[in-house]
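Researcher: Quick one. four chains, 374 residues in total.
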Amino acid sequence: MENTIKKILALGLREESLPKLLPLFEKIMLPKGHMLIKAERLERFVYFIEEGIARAFCHKDGKEITFWFGSESDILLSYNSLFLNKPGYENIELLKSSVLYKLPHSALQNLYGTDLEWANWGRKLAESELIKLEEFFIARQFKTAKMCYEDFMKSSPDILQRVQLGHIASYLGISQVTLSRIRAEIK
Amino acid sequence: MENTIKKILALGLREESLPKLLPLFEKIMLPKGHMLIKAERLERFVYFIEEGIARAFCHKDGKEITFWFGSESDILLSYNSLFLNKPGYENIELLKSSVLYKLPHSALQNLYGTDLEWANWGRKLAESELIKLEEFFIARQFKTAKMCYEDFMKSSPDILQRVQLGHIASYLGISQVTLSRIRAEIK
DNA sequence: GATAAAATTTTACAATTGTTAAAAAAGAAA
DNA sequence: TTTCTTTTTTAACAATTGTAAAATTTTATC
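Model:
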């Protein structure tokens, strides 16, 4: 569970605190296409991606919008379910067959309520995601579709390789036709 | 300090825990146009807006991008400074003369490191901002400029009234000319 | 109230992007 | 391989949006 532990420690936890959580993990392997999390349902688990790739999407005005990609060392969860205990808008599907570590919300929430170090770990998790999202949001303001794609090529070359282009276009907020045009032009 | 306390309690703090923080607040009044936080500097304070309105902006490719508005009951801070202890990209200016409560980062950080309830308060602060930003981000994917403006009218009518249109156009990621066209059309 | 400064709207034109539909290419299954 | 399905690209056209510059309106200052 190398990638999973790397992720946990990167958020500033001391190694000595790991044993409080690790025994609660369940290792699971799931095939490509599996829907891990579905919208409008209260989800009861978070998943650490040990190996594999996933995307989160929701439905808006009949369209499917991809708003997140995760791969090795990322955590996969429904914000609404974990943070607010209510059903969310998130659908999360595996794009490749994957190895995950599964953890009940209740395990995290118990630690948050009783252990100062884990409460601060949870704080740093949310803070780091917040900064990442804000930077992505700002980076995209006033960019042309071409610039957005070039940024994506630089920041996420691995995802570009592993994910189909329709999902990437959706993630970038552009039509697939526009993405194709840009790719033809860049070559 | 009604609005400030309302904000703190809304994140799930028990009233009995307030005295640990309140004495450390300093009340300040500042005029319109005051730059509270400047980019490329390590900021040492967070501010609770008791009364007034502010915007955060950064510079990107020579352009000024407004990416946040805050008013009564919002907290005003540099994510990079508070979360990562490093200079940020955020500039924050007051758009009206304002009444604020000023708090040193060190006060919050001490509480996070010693008090379970406050550590969880900090976690919830980041989590709630994260959900808000993600929803805003998703809401904007594939929307026309007109839809973005209509959403903004609904969700932030007070800010629309109090902030000049150039800043709102920037926040929505559209040019001011486009915003003017939309407003002419809607009437 | 008069004047200057700042913010907003309008105009004209060019560039980017979306939509629909069809063609081509790539991948999966028999 | 051959066939079927899915994904990606291309084409044609329409709609949206940006840019630059000028005109108008609003706000601030004397």
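Residues 164-166, 176-177, 179-181, 183-184 of chain A lie near DNA strand D (CB under 10 Å from a C1').
Researcher: Thanks, that's what I needed.
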